Amino acid sequence: MLPLLVRFVLGPLVRALYRPEIRGVENIPATGPVLLAPNHRAALDTGVITFTAMRQVKFLGKAEYFTGRGLKGKLMAGFLGGLGYVPVERGNAQAGLAALEAARKVLDAGGAFAIYPEGTRSLDGRLHRGHTGVAALALATGAKVVPVALSGTENLQPAGKRIPRRAKITVTYGEPLDFSRYEGQDSSPAIRRSVTDEIMYAILELSGQEYVDSYHKRPDQSAA
């Protein structure tokens, strides 16, 4: 019931309140496996996609968000599940493989899954080099990839604010990218890199951001 509540009740309510400009939503296939590949500008990007995609979309979520105790913990887990989060452990190589496997299960079942190719939020507003997980998923499952450009989401929740404020938001869904020409070549690092770069270029064309051909670095992190 929760996914239906999010899609048909909470979704229209949020869209009416924040009035995002939504472009190209018809580019998302109504059925079958599809990967959404957005740029990443703010923590609320996931919610923006959830409420504008017009199709239930799954995302990866930290497993600890689903393990809270008592009624509050159960309500939180149920709400996040309704939003489309799939719980996964994070923090090491094995966790990364588990995350890709969780995503693959969604796609193999004909679902829609969203993954941020940059891997983390952009702190400088630029579009950074994509990690190849998105390509690995697309090649392994045959899912089409819909590039997504988010604009203005970084203004929704300024530092120190708990409740998102109204801001000009634009969500642009690009035309699906089909990589069936590489069928059977998903184990090739060169092919995965080429596919990822093609996806990033499509996002760049939609977003108009400045592109940086290097992985994004957090202040306290080294390059991935």
TrEMBL record:
Domain Phospholipid/glycerol acyltransferase: 34-153
UniProt keyword annotations, A-Z: Acyltransferase, Transferase
Pfam families hit by this protein: Acyltransferase
SMART domains assigned: PlsC
Classification via InterPro entries: Plipid/glycerol_acylTrfase
Keyword rRNA-binding listed: no
Keyword Coiled coil (UniProt): no
GO MF terms held by the record: acyltransferase activity
UniProt protein name: 1-acyl-sn-glycerol-3-phosphate acyltransferase
Species, as recorded: Amycolatopsis oliviviridis
Record lineage: Bacteria, Bacillati, Actinomycetota, Actinomycetes, Pseudonocardiales
